[in-house]
Design the sequence.
């Protein structure tokens, strides 16, 4: 329900990370830093924020969001490209918005429901809230523009080459249909202080499929 800038370039990773950096500077702790937790696109932005503004991040938590360098390697050597087919589809003008908005957005809501492994994780009440959010002007275009900006800018980012100094927790739902479990492997090359916690019974929205396990892991990690 936030603003929906009209240009694709408004969703470039640098700009998104700088927006979060401004929030941290305004509302961070006494040292001007914050713990940063991101899932999916929020996780992609969090990886980029940690590389672009390392001094603003105290601890980093990533939930089912691939490290860009690991993701790029898997695109070239695994079935990840097939699982990411929708990214190519989203590059088309107008058509993705029409498809997702067809039949009263029922196809979109059905796809969201299908990506949850726990039946109670996505209720009719949840669907109604999502539906209302996607009904506004530009509400379908804005999330698709994240993918358009990402591809137009290129799949490389500052996080590819930066060795992140932060203590980092990666939480990974192993039943994610869109992202291979291998995305959570071999991260020490770029994140020496990483811990990986795999949640076997959870899908892409691991925080909804396994909320107690995720919340416990977050509290333990951030208190440590």
Sequence:
């Amino acid at each position: 329900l936030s603003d929906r800038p009209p240009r694709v370039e408004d969703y470039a990773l640098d700009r998104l990370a700088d927006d979060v950096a401004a929030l941290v500077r305004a509302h961070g702790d006494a040292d001007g830093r914050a713990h940063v937790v991101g899932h999916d696109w929020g996780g992609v932005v969090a990886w980029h924020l940690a590389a672009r503004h390392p001094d603003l991040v105290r601890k980093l938590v990533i939930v089912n969001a691939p490290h860009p360098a690991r993701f790029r390697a898997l695109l070239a050597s695994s079935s990840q490209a097939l699982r990411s087919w929708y990214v190519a589809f989203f590059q088309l003008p107008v058509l993705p918005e029409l498809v997702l908005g067809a039949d009263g957005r029922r196809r979109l809501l059905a796809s969201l429901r299908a990506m949850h492994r726990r039946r109670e994780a996505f209720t009719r009440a949840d669907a109604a809230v999502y539906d209302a959010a996607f009904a506004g002007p530009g509400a379908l275009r804005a999330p698709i523009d994240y993918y358009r900006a990402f591809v137009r800018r290129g799949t490389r980012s500052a996080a590819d080459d930066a060795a992140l100094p932060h203590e980092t927790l990666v939480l990974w739902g192993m039943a994610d249909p869109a992202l291979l479990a291998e995305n959570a492997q071999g991260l020490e090359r770029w994140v020496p202080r990483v811990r990986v916690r795999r949640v076997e019974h959870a899908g892409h929205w691991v925080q909804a499929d396994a909320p107690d396990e995720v919340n416990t892991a977050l509290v333990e990690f951030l208190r440590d």
